[in-house]
Amino acid sequence: MQTMSGGCQCGRVRYTAQVEPEKAYLCHCNMCKKATGGVSIAFVNPPRDKVTWHTEPDWYQSSPIARRPFCSHCGTPLGFDFLEGGTNIDLTVGSFDDPTPFRPEHNYAIESMLDVWTQVGHLPGYTSAQNTKVVEMWRAAGMEPPE
Question: Is residue 14 part of a domain?
Answer without folding.
Answer: yes
